[in-house]
Write a structure and sequence with these properties.
Length: about 220
């Protein structure tokens, strides 16, 4: 799954993964991280998610990372906000207030870029990637995050043989295996979402679950 795939999806506005409201799991479970308002938060593969604005409204400095510049431009345009734009290394950076979106390849992100991040939030990054890229993503995320970091991760679980991704199915065992070294992985919510998505029904899936994990460095 290459860059061109996602650029085309955004160019054609084929963004069924985008949610038109703040994610309910984020609202319900963010407080369990116990962060101060000043804590910086990393949001990988953020698109134009409303969750970015919600996190900033909680007082956090938010660092989003997004490959498609169309998504970044739309995020600010839909809020009638004129961001400051600058080049920082491999990224074109859009910033307004406490919210900064780095437009570029997530794998170009360095420890220095996220040195102040005490948390991360992943609703649609891990599940957007096929198996090999998920392994690389999880490894890179852990390599660059500070040693005291924690986060919320949302996954999907379904029969991958009946429907191809994205979004991809990510088994609980894969999450546990990906974050084995130095992480505590705790499930905090599991919800049946089969009936809420026509694509799932059309694919004749028998079950689709969203699972929310709280991950914390030991």
């Amino acid at each position: 799954m290459q860059e061109a795939f996602w650029q085309e999806r955004w160019a054609r506005s084929q963004i069924g993964f985008h949610q038109e409201k703040v994610n309910g799991y984020l609202r319900r479970h963010w407080a369990r991280l116990g962060l101060s308002e000043e804590a910086a938060v990393l949001v990988p593969l953020c698109g134009k998610s409303l969750d970015l604005a919600w996190l900033a409204e909680q007082g956090h400095s938010v660092i989003g990372v997004e490959l498609a510049e169309r998504a970044v431009q739309d995020f600010f345009a839909e809020r009638d906000v004129q961001p400051q734009i600058a080049q920082h290394g491999a990224f074109k950076v859009y910033q307004a207030g406490k919210l900064r979106i780095l437009c570029g390849d997530f794998f170009a992100l360095s420890r220095e870029d996220v040195a102040d991040c005490l948390a991360f939030y992943d609703r649609a990054a891990l599940i957007a990637l096929p198996t090999e890229m998920r392994e690389r993503y999880a490894a890179h995320l852990q390599a660059i995050l500070p040693p005291t970091c924690q986060g919320l991760l949302v996954t999907l679980v379904y029969d991958q043989q009946r429907m191809d991704g994205p979004p991809f199915s990510v088994a609980d065992a894969e999450v546990a295996q990906s974050f084995t070294s130095g992480w505590e992985v705790r499930e905090v919510e599991r919800k049946d979402v089969l009936s809420g998505n026509p694509r799932f029904v059309e694919s004749q899936l028998e079950a689709v679950e969203e699972v929310v994990f709280h991950l914390a460095r030991r």
